[in-house]
Amino acid sequence: MPGDLGAAGLRTEGLTVRYGGVVANDDVSITVGTGEIVGLIGPNGAGKTTFVDAVTGFTRSTGTVAVDDTDVSRLPAFRRRRAGLSRTWQSGELFANLTVTQNVVTALRPGGLSALWRDIVVPRRRDTDAEVRNALETVGLGSAGATPARDLTLGRQKLVGVARALGGNCRVLLLDEPAAGLDTEESREFADRIRDISVRGIGVLLIDHDMSLVLGVCDRVYVMEFGKIIFAGTPQEARTDPAVIAAYLGAPMETNDA
Ligand SMILES: Nc1ncnc2c1ncn2[C@@H]1O[C@H](COP(=O)(O)OP(=O)(O)OP(=O)(O)O)[C@@H](O)[C@H]1O
Predict the structure, then answer these.
(1) What is the ipTM of this complex?
(2) One MF term in GO for this entry (predicted)?
(3) How far does the centroid of ligand 1 lie from the alpha carbon of residue 49, in Å?
(4) How far apart are CA 141 and CA 164, in angstroms?
(5) How far apart are the C-alpha atoms of 87 and 60, rounded to whole Å?
(6) Is there an atom of ligand 1 within 6 Å of 247 CB?
(7) Contact at 8 Å (CB) between 63 and 5?
(8) If we measure between CA atoms, which residue out of 139, 136, 151 comes closest to residue 189?
(9) What does the alpha-carbon distance between residue 133 and residue 149 come to, in Å, rounded to a whole number?
């Protein structure tokens, strides 16, 4: 039902993923509005990465995925990316010997012979340069373009990963455990960069086990357990919801807001 899903940003309706007998996502309906930061939390194996895979077209699903009112459910991953759905990966490795700029360029320039031919006939270099600069400035790395990735702190390497996802027509950014391994200070800085991204009108779906980060930076959160959404509300409501505490947070809960 293209065109009648309402609201800008990301909307899923009844998204379901089956791996053999495992229902990894079970009828998942969520929204991430323009410029909104939304958390998706839940225990290990709850189905969070599967959800990102399904939304971005990297695993088969049933149900609806819409971005800015356009139904992309039947599109392959690269066309969902063009429609504005970008993601980071849990592994998130960079090319250690390439500079920060080169790492971002590799994500933006399509490969293959046809792309090479297009580059010769219609050079896009200036466009790409502007996109790279814009993406790096958005994550606060505007002056680090010439630095080899291996010389960056882990926190800044993670931000390069985010910049790689930001290029092109990014409307909704799905971050899969972007803060893994960061210390408290790095995690706070990361939260500031996520806010910078959202004020540019990009919707952010943040998946992470760092509860200070998620509950501190998100406008709303969803909690997933066994592939189902068991809670939707504000971070404050999540902290005190008995089902969320039982499924994930445990009690008493210890968080320092980012
Ligand atoms: N490619 C796959 N084939 C079969 N089963 C899979 C596949 N990927 C995930 N699963 C299963 O789907 C369920 C959800 O896994 P998923 O990785 O999405 O959870 P998660 O919430 O992201 O976990 P974590 O927080 O540990 O990253 C698990 O039972 C997992 O074993």
Answers:
(1) 0.95
(2) ATP binding
(3) 7
(4) 12
(5) 17
(6) no
(7) no
(8) 139
(9) 16
Q: Ligand 1, residue 42: give the atom nearest the CA.
A: 21
Tell me which residue has tokens 């250690």.
96
Contact 224, 47 (CB under 8 A): yes
pLDDT tens-digit readout, 82-103: 999 999 987 768 899 999 999 9
Q: From CA 168, how far away is CA 59, in angstroms rounded?
A: 22
Beta bridge partners of 229: 224
Nearest to 86 by CA among 8, 7, 176: 176
Q: Which atom of ligand 1 is nearest to the CA of 59?
A: 1
Q: Is 22 in the pocket of ligand 1 (CB under 6 A)?
A: yes
Q: Which two tokens stand for residue 110?
A: 């399509």
Which residue has 């910078």 as its token pair? 196
Is ligand 1 within 6 A of the CB of residue 181?
A: no
What tokens were used for 240?
A: 């005190």
3-state DSSP assignment of residue 232: strand
Cβ neighbours around 98 below 10 Å, total: 16
